[in-house]
Amino acid sequence: MNSKIPEFREKLQKKLNPGRYEHSLSVAFTCICLAMRYGYPIDQAEVAGMLHDCAKGYDNDTIIRHCEKKGIEITEDERKAPAVLHAKYGAWLAENTYDIHDQEILDAIACHTTGKPAMGLLDKILYVADYIEARRDKAEDLPVIRRLAFEDLDEALYQILEGTLNYLGSKGAFVDPMTRKTYDYYKQQRKGETNV
Ligand SMILES: [Fe+2]
Ligand SMILES: [Fe+2]
Q: Dihedrals φ, ψ of 44, to 5°?
């Protein structure tokens, strides 16, 4: 175990509401399980899961203000859908207030809301863990995605992206273009694989 985990827990518990804190622990444990399954270092996966929502204690306006103050670039799309920004700001907080300098952990936190094309293994583990963790109970496809996550991580990732786009589409909500770009990338990859 990373020796700083108890310290991270203590700090997060003060910063996040109880439900969000519980979710963070659950994502951390799910990241551990997926890391075991796919051969990623367990300690790093646990830290990424634990800290991924460390910026969730702030509202959107505060996050935007903090980003501007710290010189963190905000795209026009992120201004339209600021909910995704907690990922980017979370990566900044992880580096600057939790003293994390492992680039793979920071990258995974930074892309955990939208994904990105050509994600690394930890990026995928965190993205999928965030969706399937045991405390989640709303999405109807959870039993299927949970099983799939341990059989084929890329396919689970693809199906989560597809489900997210369909859900946002049905609500007429704004979709951050990075989510669409990620989906298109993995759709293409999947097509390539099935054509072999
Ligand atoms: Fe998040
Ligand atoms: Fe989360």
A: -65, -40
Distance between Cα 169 and ligand 1 center (Å): 20
Q: Is 11 exposed, middle or buried (0-12, 13-18, 19+ CB in 10 A)?
A: middle
Q: What are the pLDDT digits (tens) for 160-194?
A: 999 999 999 999 988 889 999 999 999 999 988 76
- Average pLDDT of the residues of the chain: 95
Task: Please tell me the number of the ligand nearest to residue 110's CA.
Answer: 1
Q: Nearest CA to 4 among 48, 36, 47?
A: 47
DSSP assignment, residue 84? G
Q: Where are the alpha helices (DSSP H) in 81-176?
A: 85-96, 103-110, 121-132, 142-149, 153-171
- For residue 146, the CA-to-ligand 2 centroid distance in Å is 16
Whether the model pTM is above 0.90: yes
- Cα–chain-centroid distance for residue 84? 10
